[in-house]
Design goal:
Radius of gyration: 26 Å
Number of helices: 5
Strand content: under 5%
Shape: flat
Number of strands: 0
């Protein structure tokens, strides 16, 4: 490549800030790659931030977290969320058929209790802040 007069150099992230500079084809390509890298990172981080967790936990979070500030008892909120997420929970049960029934029952019980305790703990923390 030296005989063609082309040299390759490492350009640090400081080059990404100069996107409108009048540069050659390689400079434009480098700038385009910087823009694509940064924008794809921002887009993917937003997607993953909202959808973190299993389908069951995402569904239960969507149906319990909005009611943390309500006056409804935590058990009632969690029971209603389980009814609304019944299809997702049934799919999860199908995926756990190979596990021992006692283990599945224990997981279900602890998961249900976790959501009740989570709501109660957040309510206590909100009361302490007042």
């Amino acid at each position: 490549m030296q005989e063609l007069g082309i040299t390759f150099e490492y350009y640090g992230s400081e080059d990404c800030s100069v996107l409108l500079e009048n540069v050659g084809i390689m400079g434009r390509f480098r700038n385009l790659m910087c823009v694509l890298l940064v924008s794809s990172g921002l887009i993917s981080s937003n997607v993953f931030a909202e959808q973190y967790g299993t389908p069951v936990s995402i569904c239960l979070n969507n149906h319990t977290i909005p009611f943390i500030d309500s006056d409804r008892p935590a058990t009632e909120v969690v029971d209603a969320a389980y009814k609304q997420c019944q299809d997702v929970i049934l799919q999860w049960d199908k995926e756990r058929k190979s596990l021992p029934p006692g283990m599945v029952a224990k997981q279900d019980e602890e998961f249900h209790l976790f959501y009740i305790h989570m709501i109660e703990a957040r309510r206590r923390a909100a009361e302490k802040r007042k």
